[in-house]
């Protein structure tokens, strides 16, 4: 059975890592729903968050192949109940929507959205939330004439108390064992 | 986080790891990047490399000229020859093979060999020249994104644009190629990095913080595996190249001997256990032996050691060893549960895991079970093997040639095969006494591999007899490498088994395409004349009468020798597991 998995990959900061990772999905014909990358709290270590809809077995295999990359430290996969996650969406609306201020305000309040910027010809609405939520807002804003819409990839934090740095130290200890 | 996969470690702060691009810039001697390439190779103990020059790698070649007393450069006739030769060199010696090529077409000509080395876990380091760094990405003359192209087929690759990175990159490359599950590494060096100077100081790499080559063994897995083995009535061991790459031949033998465990090999595992060993049950897979394939589906415990369940070994996986508990030992955790679900997966270096297992297993003989192998062997022997290797009439068979070569070299030669029917026959009928003696392209099945891999092997093992056994098709894929043999004067024995067909494809056409021989008939040149044109002694044999003597003459000759043997045109390799069939459905005719 296919379900949604969030894969977190911890890597060195090196050119080409993204290609290395994406090739593994391409080879197996797996569509990446979303992908984000950022620096982590650990100095110089990067984190990719990749969302896919696949069977658990396939995700496990893919994650192992990702971990095989020399510059990948670790990779994990989680189901939705094991993570806290968020996405952000931006909506560009024509400035004339101001005329329907009350109506817009109501929607904005309902969705906990905010106005990020007001320019001469347009304004930008920002909302963070899960995909269904930003999607719902999009649908409600459509009658106002959405000029542009963009949604970010997912960022996700794992629920259990755990620090990447600690697990690095733990594993380094293990690695020393194999050297002696 | 219960499902989290945690198998990689990283380094603690106080470890001696040096940061990737921070070599000590003030220490060492002042030399150019290209000299640093040569000195790095020497620091890694390299004394032979295979390559082909061109514009973007000329500065390095200039240094190779200066260092020719210390570093032997073999000029091949095609870059594919260079990379296969490096593979042959690596496979026989157990060391890293090195090849070098120019940018663009030079680099792309390496790809087949790199892919071959990747799938067959062969440690090689490939060096390519690249256009100047200011031209990168501009479609400059002979610019190819070799990093992008080789990404899926290298264990690691890197582009060097600054000369000072060269020693660190080489140290890392050699460490990665050889450690853990070995594989090919590619270093692409821009021309400006070759020209500019650096302070050269070489320090071998012993650790990379994001990379754990040797896993920590989970003792409980070993204990559980031992218990399963101790309770088994019909245990069966499959072994692959992991035993050879892990230098665990002795440990493996002790393991099967104590447990009384019958064992069969993949073609890359061949020669890890001497052929005459009573527990050696032969070859697995599509054209493997009858007994080990049949009994795969009758054993109660299947113990896979350093192998990866290639589909040529398993046949239909949905009907593969379903009755058995499966223990899978491999150094690459991505292989465990990839194809066949393991009851117990042991992520380990076989050299470490096997003695631990051996200690815990009971001493047994499993005589009755082993009898079953012998019984099936008997059937195969009568129906196939005798006719293959001792025919009394008709055309010469590939089997009798291979059998004679093995016999006359006292089962002690390095045997290199190409790809096709002759490859299967060679693996089936050559006997081995020594490990690292069977060199063939397994995972990729690369025609053209044989000839260059064979002279690479001979250069790595000059004191051993090296025989290349090649089909008339594959021979012509890298026939130009006769020129390399001419120039290096290697004493290589080449046997071309000529059936005037792309035999293996023809066999499939006969069996599955109603004999429609689409593009498999070969109009061949005069191979003897070609060899002689390259100054290589050569002879063609068409009848059985002098076969034995002629093979002897070839082996006795002091120098390279090409023997062309005209073999049966439309012979088939049996047994065979047709694609989509289960191992138990192996056909004897
Ligand atoms: C580079 C490459 N191209 C095509 C194939 C497909 N192929 C596999 S075996 C074979 C025929 C080999 O013929 P030959 O070298 O004469 O050996 P034989 O089978 O007759 O022993 C072919 C074409 C391959 N393995 N490698």
Structural category of chain B is alpha/beta
Q: Would you identify the CATH H-level superfamily of the largest domain in chain A?
A: ACT domain
The figure for the number of domains of chain B is 3
Low-confidence stretches of chain B: 1-23
- Which series of helices and strands of chain A comes N to C? EHEEHEEHEEHEEH
Query: What is the distance, rounded to the nearest whole angstrom, between the alpha carbons of the first and last residues of chain A?
Result: 44 Å
Into which percent range does the helicity of residues of chain A fall? 25-40%
Q: Helicity of chain B, in percent?
A: 25-40%
- Indicate the proportion of strand residues of chain A: 35-45%
Round the mean pLDDT of chain B to the nearest integer and report it: 95
Computed CA radius of gyration of chain A, to the nearest angstrom: 20 Å
Q: Indicate how many domains the architecture of chain A comprises.
A: 2
Outline of the structure:
The complex is a heterodimer of chains A (180) and B (589). Chain A is of the alpha+beta class.
What's the topology here?
The complex is a heterodimer of chains A (180) and B (589).
Chain A: E1 2-12, H1 17-27, E2 32-39, E3 45-55, H2 56-67, E4 72-78, E5 83-94, H3 101-110, E6 114-118, E7 122-129, H4 131-141, E8 148-151, E9 155-158, H5 164-179
Antiparallel strand pairs in A: 1-3, 1-4, 2-3, 5-7, 5-8, 5-9, 6-7
Chain B: E1 29-32, H1 33-43, E2 48-51, H2 58-66, E3 72-75, H3 79-93, E4 97-101, H4 105-108, H5 111-119, E5 124-130, H6 146-150, E6 156-160, H7 166-178, E7 184-190, H8 191-195, E8 197-200, H9 219-230, E9 235-239, H10 242-245, H11 249-259, E10 263-265, E11 280-283, H12 290-296, E12 301-305, H13 311-314, E13 325-330, E14 344-347, H14 350-360, H15 367-389, H16 398-408, E15 414-417, H17 421-429, E16 438-439, H18 450-460, E17 466-471, H19 472-475, H20 482-488, E18 493-498, H21 503-512, H22 527-533, E19 537-541, H23 547-556, E20 561-566
Parallel strand pairs in B: 2-3, 2-4, 4-5, 5-7, 6-7, 9-10, 9-12, 10-11, 12-13, 13-14, 15-16, 15-17, 17-18, 18-20, 19-20
Antiparallel strand pairs in B: 1-8
